[in-house]
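Thread title: Can someone regenerate the structure for this chain?

I was given the following input by a collaborator and told the matching structure tokens would be attached. They weren't. Posting the sequence so someone can regenerate them.
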Amino acid sequence: MKNMEGAMADRIDYIEFPSLNRAASSAFFRAAFGWGTVSYGPDYDGLEGAGIDGGIDQAPERVAAPLAVVRTDDLDQAEWRVIAAGGVITRPQFDFPGGRRFHFREPGGNELAVWVAREEG
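Best answer:
Regenerated them for you:
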């Protein structure tokens, strides 16, 4: 599936690492790999320079394992395809800084998320 610019849609472009201590995890990734971090509040840091965009999530409702996040061009259509393919929605669509997303569990048990960028305007 391609979007209007010819780029592939529905691709993994983000990964979130759950953490019991966001500050310690961020410090570890900086010291071990030289990755930068950007704080988005007390529970979330974005990663920079890791080769793929990502973040460290300390929020109470975080997923218990790393979360691969798929970018799409049409969130409603992607949700329909996930359900039709046997996925189970684990967190309904919600807004976050920069876009909107939902979480799902695929039949093998892995939880993923799908997101769409917020339209400028």
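The longest helix spans residues 22-33.
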